[in-house]
Write a structure and sequence with these properties.
By secondary structure, this protein is of the alpha+beta class. It folds into 3 domains: 22-135, Immunoglobulin-like (Sandwich), CATH 2.60.40; 156-167 and 196-384 and 439-469 and 507-574, Alpha/Beta hydrolase fold, catalytic domain (Rossmann fold), CATH 3.40.50.1820; 578-664, no CATH class. The chain has 16 helices and 30 strands. The strands form 8 sheets. The protein has a 6-stranded parallel beta sheet, with helices on both faces. A 5-stranded antiparallel beta sheet has the order 16-25-24-23-28, with no helix packed on it. It comes from Candidatus Nomurabacteria bacterium GW2011_GWD2_39_12. One of its GO terms (biological process) is lipid metabolic process.
Length: 674
């Protein structure tokens, strides 16, 4: 080689090394960093890159996830990348390497050399939907050395707590027309409830609704989570745990969507997975304990099922950092009470006792995916002995009960029959909005999503390293079945579809969830089951976390202290008789004990809502359409009062009940005329 050629070669080599060496410490995105076949919707400004939201797969306002894949390594979800996807919006991911995303995502990769990088967007309907890819030329600074390990905890090394509240237990807000924040839940009136209505596909009609906090203090009637919050705050102030977090969520939405897509807050969307990860990262034990109430337990199970799938896919091992799961009054396989609630809007209490009118309650629940998730699942029908729906057909051959009996027999005995009934398989037409005594037919699409959820979480088996605790409330009248009777009608139109409905009760529950559903996972060897006796207390399903016995149990569990006997490990027995009085009439039904304590309905003036007052110990007040029901297990010296002088014509009925049996009262009771 001649001297001139050698000098030219050395000069070119110097230029090559200068351009493509490892000198840059921050990776800049320029045209030289990418291969030539970038999608036309790709965007770069040399310091960031993005992608026009693909309209073929996503709808406006959909939350999407970013995933990143390096060479042939499995793709990993980049949690910081999720955004609300609006049509034709450009996504930015600025200064990716100065933020250390590649290094943090692939810590073992040598980023000083070139790699093939693929970014793609995903939603639950179509993973790997759209992506773009590019080649790097290297030059990214190597991963910095890990910081020195944190000091090892030696005293009170207990886990941080993640709390998942129940249905309707997170406040919901929107921005009013005047620019001020408007609280929609807890509602101030029916207009707030109407603002929460949903489209037939389950999406919110108002896309600007967000959440921020859970409901701790009720409106001067009943507290929900105040005592629980005080208890866990005490663990923090006493330095037993470092912190805890409540995860408020839009309870109208699908459980799986909350887990996969996070929850919209006022200024950001907060990921449930990231919330759990942050608690693990700051925990003394390096782990987190999950406490979940009611519908929050379905979210917890869906979350842990996802994390277990992530571990199996090699994405993360976060599921191993959950040491204890405490499920409190969780309708794991559904609740029979959801059937009349969704079909009729019956007994839909707003938290702390307020009663929605049935028309608004049913319209809110008609397209609410979370409500569908509370309906009895296939496992409920298979495992719980009581049929959720029964039918009585007597002397009215044209009545709808005749058609129901012809289609399903006297009781729903299989899941296929149950599903057909909910979807209107016997051929009923959808009633008018205000005809709440007639059942609506449920959306097949929304019901299919609820089926998919339960097919997943009902089959979930917790890892053997996780301690699972199920707490079931017991001793309160809980709907076990809903019975349809024919009702005489003189009108010429629609008489064949006139119904009378009667709830059937068991004491094996907390007023909402029966024990077999709340203790469904107990067939797994590492699951512990407990009963909390709510008889002789003023707590029920809604405010069960106000129970001092339960709070002591949870506190001791977090601190790994011996558990006392406040909760039972064996089923309680109920030998008491219970008096149930029902009246089918527009009149009210009120009960008073010897101390003038009242159980009944109170309607404040100038309010859209009435509320149920239940001041007599072991009493309850329910409404199902025109039927009012008062239950009391301590009915000595009780007086019953109705403002109607013609109470006999109003259809007053008496009954007594043992834990599993309803029979007509065999003795005469005297009514007080006061």
């Amino acid at each position: 080689m001649s001297t001139i050629k050698l000098l030219r070669f050395l000069f070119a080599l110097v230029i090559f090394v200068s351009v493509f060496s490892f000198t840059p410490k921050v990776f800049a995105f320029t045209s030289s960093n990418f291969n030539s076949n970038i999608n036309t919707s790709f965007y770069t400004d040399n310091t960031s890159y993005g992608f026009t939201c693909p309209t073929s797969h996503f709808t406006s306002g959909m939350y999407v996830d970013y995933y990143i894949a390096l060479d042939n390594l499995p793709p990993v979800r980049v949690s910081a990348g999720g955004e609300i996807c609006y049509q034709h919006q450009v996504f930015h991911y600025s200064d990716i390497d100065s933020a250390g995303i590649l290094a943090a995502t692939f810590p073992t990769a040598d980023l000083t050399i070139g790699h093939h990088v693929r970014f793609f967007f995903s939603n639950s309907a179509d993973p790997n939907a759209d992506y773009f890819e590019f080649d790097t030329n290297g030059g990214i600074a190597p991963t910095p050395p890990s910081p020195p390990p944190s000091p090892v905890c030696t005293v009170d090394c207990f886990s941080n707590v993640l709390f998942l509240p129940g249905l309707e237990a997170s406040r919901l807000y929107t921005q009013g027309s005047d620019g001020n924040e408007d609280q929609l839940w807890e509602p101030g009136g029916n207009s707030d409830v109407e603002a929460l209505y949903l489209n037939p596909d389950g999406t919110s009609k108002n896309g600007n609704i967000y959440t921020r906090d859970i409901i701790d203090l009720g409106h001067n009637i009943k507290n929900i989570y105040k005592s629980f919050s005080d208890t866990v705050n005490g663990l923090v102030s006493n330095q037993k745990i470092n912190t805890w977090k409540e995860y408020a969520y839009d309870w109208r939405q699908d459980v799986q969507s909350i887990v996969d897509n996070g929850t919209k807050y006022q200024t950001e969307t907060i990921s449930l997975v990231d919330t759990l990860q942050s608690l693990v990262d700051s925990s003394k034990s390096g782990k987190a304990t999950i406490v979940a109430h009611s519908n929050g337990g379905l979210i917890a199970k869906a979350l842990l099922k996802k994390l277990q799938d992530d571990k199996n896919a090699g994405i993360n091992n976060l599921v191993d950092n959950v040491d204890v799961l405490i499920l409190v009054a969780v309708p794991e396989i559904g609740t029979s009470k959801a059937v009349p609630a969704v079909l009729h809007g019956y007994d839909q209490r707003i938290l702390f006792g307020f009663l929605q009118d049935e028309t608004h309650a049913r319209e809110l629940g008609r397209n609410m995916l979370s409500a569908f998730g509370l309906l009895p699942s296939r496992e409920y029908i298979n495992r719980v002995s009581a049929s959720p729906v029964t039918f009585v057909d007597t002397i009215i051959p044209s009545n709808v009960t005749t058609k129901l009996v012809q289609a399903f027999g006297s009781a729903i005995n299989s899941y296929d029959e149950y599903k057909s009934f909910l979807l209107g398989g016997e051929g009923r037409t959808d009633p008018a909005i205000n005809q709440t005594n007639l059942p609506i037919s449920l959306s097949p699409n929304l019901f299919a999503k609820a089926e998919s959820l339960h097919n997943s979480i009902d089959a979930w088996i917790p890892p053997t390293s996780m301690r699972v605790i199920e707490v079931a409330g017991w001793g309160l009248d809980t709907i076990a079945s809903f019975e349809y009777y024919p009702k005489l009608c003189t009108a010429s139109v629609g008489c064949g579809f006139t119904l009378d409905e009667r709830p059937r009760f068991t004491s094996d529950g907390d007023g909402t969830v029966v024990v077999p559903s709340a203790q469904y996972t107990s067939f797994v060897s590492n699951t512990e089951k407990y009963w909390l006796n709510l008889l002789n207390t003023k707590n029920d399903h809604t405010d069960i976390l106000e129970s001092s016995h339960l709070l002591s149990f949870i506190s001791n569990t977090v601190q790994k202290l011996p558990l006392d006997s406040s909760l039972s490990t064996i089923p309680p027995t109920d030998s008491s008789s219970r008096l149930r009085l029902s009246i089918h009439s527009p009149v009210t039904l009120d009960a008073y004990d010897a101390e003038s304590n009242h159980t009944g309905k109170i309607c404040p003036p100038n309010s859209d809502f009435c509320y149920a007052e239940e001041n007599i110990l072991n009493s309850s007040y329910l409404e199902f359409g025109a039927k009012k029901l008062d239950t009391n297990s301590d009915f000595e010296d009780e007086r019953v009062r109705s403002p109607s002088p013609a109470i006999g014509g109003a259809g007053l009925r008496f009954a007594t009940a043992s834990p599993s049996l309803w029979q007509e009262m065999k003795r005469i009771l005297m009514l007080s005329g006061e």
